[in-house]
Amino acid sequence: MSREDVENPELCVAELMRLWPDTINVFLRRRMLCVGCMVSHFHTVADVCLAYDLDRDVFMAEVRAEIAAG
Q1: Domains of the chain, with CATH numbers?
Q2: pLDDT value for 3
Q3: What are the beta bridge partners of residue 44?
Q4: What is the per-residue pLDDT across 31-50, written as a single tens digit (0 to 9) for each?
Q5: What is the pTM of this model?
Q6: Rounded to 10 degrees, what is the CA torsion of 49, 53, 56, 58?
Q7: Summary count for the chain: helices (H), strands (E)
Q8: CA dist 5 to 2, 11, 31, 32, 51, Å?
Q9: How far apart, in whole angstroms, are the C-alpha atoms of residue 50 and residue 68?
């Protein structure tokens, strides 16, 4: 998975956090339990947004901002 794949809908949350460690801050700020969760290797951003009732576009804007700031 290349660094340009942050928008890939099949990217699992664990891989997102591995490739861009600064994105962990987004999950922590929102009090999401994804950091260290064993299921994060299987859940995509879309999955966790659905589980946490989050707007995916808003969440991804936060993720992209965190990547850009890092």
Answers
A1: 8-69 (1.10.3910)
A2: 47
A3: 12
A4: 999 999 999 999 999 999 99
A5: 0.87
A6: -130
A7: 4, 0
A8: 6, 8, 25, 22, 22
A9: 25
